[in-house]
Amino acid sequence: MTRILVIEDESKVARAVRDGLRAEGYGTEIAGTGDDGLVLVRREPFDLVVLDLMLPGRSGLDVLAELRGAGLGTPVLILTARDTVADRVSGLDAGADDYLVKPFAFAELLARVRALLRRGRPETPSRLSIADLEVDPVARRATRAGRALPLTAREFELLEFLVRHQAEVVSRDQIAREVWREPARGTPLDNVIDVHIMRLRRKVDREAGARLIHTVRGVGFVVREEEP
Ligand code: CA
After folding, report:
1. Reduced to 3 states, what is the DSSP secondary structure of residue 154?
2. Separation of 120 CA from ligand 1 center, angstroms?
């Protein structure tokens, strides 16, 4: 059974989300604080975490940082009441995979949950590589020069997409469609894509000898080995 953890202190919201997800057949648990959530997520395997940012005590962003710091790559969907780009970007920067602004319709939450869970199950298992970068879609693990890269689920999917299309320039339109599953891109999504590219660069290229992720101005991005 697919299992989802909801970390949310507002019990009415938490119960409504849990009951709705259970009705859809997902095994769903609630944690009322970030600490309880971290205990649960370390103890039992979950396929997805729904995380409220505004929690008493330890904030959602702290919980997220701790989760990622511990090497847990479980997809995380953030709930935020504050509809500002700054919050979204800091959430994404801390390792969230998607966000939803409160108040939201349950149908919208369900759509995001399904999309994140789909991304968790790659259909084409085969190992990909370029130079000393290796991407294993089955284990959902990427290494550079043998060193494991701490990627979020979305970062992994973006890197996998770029490496599958290595030496080919991919546009933000393609990335929006294939990685974010959005039919049309817009400026906010472009910003989110750029943030993810920046974070991938930091993780993939910064400590390596040669850069692999390149920006092609006005067109998009390409993964290729640098010309000698
Ligand atoms: Ca809250």
Report:
1. helix
2. 26
User: What is the rounded CA–CA span in Å between residue 41 and residue 83?
Assistant: 27
In b/e form, how buried is each residue of 18-57, taking b as 16+ CB within 10 angstroms? Answer: bebbeeeebebbbbbbbbbbbebbeeeebbbbbbbbebee
Kindly list the protein residues that place their beta carbon closer than 5 angstroms to ligand 1, a single-atom ion.
Answer: 9, 52, 54
> Cα(226) to centroid of ligand 1, in Å?
47
pLDDT at 93 exceeding the cut of 90: no
Residue 168 Cα, ligand 1 centroid: separation in angstroms?
43
- Pairing between β-strand 48-52 and β-strand 98-101 as defined by DSSP bridges: unpaired
Q: What percentage of the chain's residues is helix, strand, coil (to nearest 5)?
A: 40, 20, 40
Q: Is it the case that residue 84 has pLDDT exceeding 80?
A: no
For the chain, give the percent of residues with pLDDT over 90.
52
**Residue 195 alpha carbon to ligand 1 centre in Å:** 26
> What pTM was computed for the model?
0.55
pLDDT tens track for 128-166: 888 899 988 877 889 999 899 999 999 999 999 999 888
* Cβ neighbours, 10 Å, residue 74: 20
DSSP, collapsed to helix, strand or coil, labels residue 101 as strand
